[in-house]
Structures are given as structure tokens and as C-alpha cells.
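Bumping with the actual sequence this time:
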Amino acid sequence: MTDSVPARRPRVAVVFGGTSSEHAISCLTAGSVLAAIDRDRYDVVAIGITHSGRWVVVPTELHDRLAIIGGSLPEIGEDLLDAIWLRTSAGTDLAITAGKGPVQDPSQSTSAQSTSAQSTSAQSTSALSRHGSIDVAFALLHGPFGEDGTIQGMFEMMGTRYVGAGVLASAVGMDKIYMKLVLAASGLPVGPFVPVLPRDWARDRAACLEAVAALHHPLYVKPARGGSSLGITRVAEGEDLVAAIEHARQFDPKVIIEEGFVDAHELECGVLGGLDGSDAEASPVAEIRVHTDSGFYDFEAKYLPEEQVDLDVPADVDADVADEVRRLAVRTFEAIGCEGLARVDMFVTRDRKVYVNEINTMPGFTAHSMFPRMWAAAGMDYPELVDRLLRLALERPVGLR
């Protein structure tokens, strides 16, 4: 199936929120992206997914609330109008449920009107109002049920073009265990790790701990399918490994335990797919230097600006090391069959060996995120970066490719 993109101004659905623990981070990312999209080139509608899983239309006047306000992280309320994705012969349409009477275009409605319409809907039979086609979806969902191939599968079935990695690449990139297996099988250097699967942990906890004992401390205990550093614990020798595993299991029953790198540089590199079929390209290399009590790039260091963390772009490393990082970043991108964008995280040891830690197929776009900073260092500012991703998605055919 190779439906052509219409000649009119493309309509972009920015999808964010979600049911994962990274709901607030997704909202922060969406706030930045919504502010950056060129409204002279694109029509935009904001689609939020609430904590309960409802899809709702977020009106324009609420977009500036997708930020940290008074120390509180944003979230999507349950009092907005339901948004419904419809498959048509030509692609995808957006519809909105409401009560009796007209419903305005979501980009023009007010919060008072939205609340009123939602209340009316609760008191009467819902009506379905169509609001035109969706040409491309920009899903800014982090974590399970969004970054893991699930929503990408829905887009594929609905015939919707979308920004970023496809179903398989998203799923592999989300699951750190399978990611490392795929990367190692592709000849890429990865560090030692041990998976702790829920069935194994329930049946034979001692065997799991014995397998972990082969790793050298410090250890990093992580939810296998988590992100934004939520649920991660650094475990030094003699510290409580079981408690760290149980903490990670609160975020994901599947856990990965990685051997830490001592005195290593923590480097990142952004990758963008090439337009018109050209090769993917790598950004300048960045380095993270953390001074927090946790000793690693945790949630607070990533998203709360008062924390002490230095993000150096470009990284102060030798040119040959930077070149190797950029080369491995593109190889990692290609190894999982990624599309659109990714951020690849690596470690460089004292003996200058480079190891791939992980690939993130939907890196954050907040003001403190490394991905846009790296491309800014390459001369591509934030609005240009957003436009590049939308152009990549629009030129990509729907269906098998």
C-alpha cells in the first residue's frame, strides 16, 4: 500500500501522555514539540492519553501547561473530549465524541467548552463528530505502551504515517535484554549483563543471585522495559541486591542487571534517518558528567534543572574516540532496523574501548534533553529538527517497507 500524501497542508497529530510511569515526561516533551511545529506548514492537533488510557483532545490553550509549574509535573486530566482514530479508504480520520449539538475544531475549542461538552456527553447519547484526516502522527510516548511498538502497530493497522521507529525496532529498543542480544549478535560491543525474568525470580531466587554474582560491582539494576532512569538502583559491593531487584520490579517484572563501568566517560550520540533514501547520519558526541548524590544520570538529573549535572556538547574527547562513537551509533541504529531518530548511549573506558549501553528510539525533547542539544551543535535548531522528523515520516510509505 503506497497511498500518496495529499498536496494540502499536512495535519499532524501529536500524541502524548500514556499509561506508563513516564506519563509526565511525555507531557513535557509534547509541550516543547507543540511549541516548535511551524503552523504555517502544518495543521496540528494535540491528542493526549490519560492515565486511565482514554484518548482525548487537548485544546490549544492548555498546551502551555505541559511544563513543570510550581515544581509539579504535568498530566492529562480526565475532563476532556474523547478522541477516536478512524480507518478510512484514504488513510486516517480523527473524530470526537460529544453530546447533542455541534463540536468545534479541537485547535479552536476552549477548556470551558470542552468541559461543558464532556458533561453533556455524560448526560446524553454520545454523538460522533469528524474533524478531518490525520496525515502523520508524532507519538511522544515514553516507556511501555507507546515506545515499545504497541502504538506503532496501531498506526500500521490504521494506515497512519508516523514519526520514528517501526514495530520491531521499537520493541527491541524498549526491551534492554533483547536489545543487547541483537546488538551483540550484530557484532556490536556491549557490556556484561544478567536478565532476571519474573518466572525465574519466582521459582529460584538463589539461582538468579548466583548468576549475578559473576558480574563485577558496581551493578546497575534496571527495569528491562523502562526509561527516564525510573526504577534504577546502583548497587555497590555488599549492598542489598534483592531490594534493588524488588524496586525495579515495581516498574517492570522483567529486570536487567548490568555490570557498571568504573571511571568511564558516559557519551551520547544522536542519529537521524536520511531524507530521500540517503544514509542515516550521526550528531556531534555529547558527554554527561553527573554530580548528584546517586552518582548516575537518574530521573532528577535528567528532568529537574536544579540538580547538578553537566551536559557537554560537543564532548571533550579525542577526535578518534568521537568518530568511533558516531560510527557505532549509526551501526546500532541500523542493527535494530531503526527509522527516523534515535539516541545511542555509550561508555568509553580508561583504555579507550567503546561499549554500546543502549539505544533510545524516542529520546526526550525537553529543554534539558540531550538529543536536541546535540543536533543544535550540528547547526540544526529545534524547529528544524522537528520539521526534519515530520518530513521523514511523510516521505515514508505506509504498509510493509
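The C-alpha cells above came from a reply further down the thread. Residues 99-125 have pLDDT under 50 and may be disordered.
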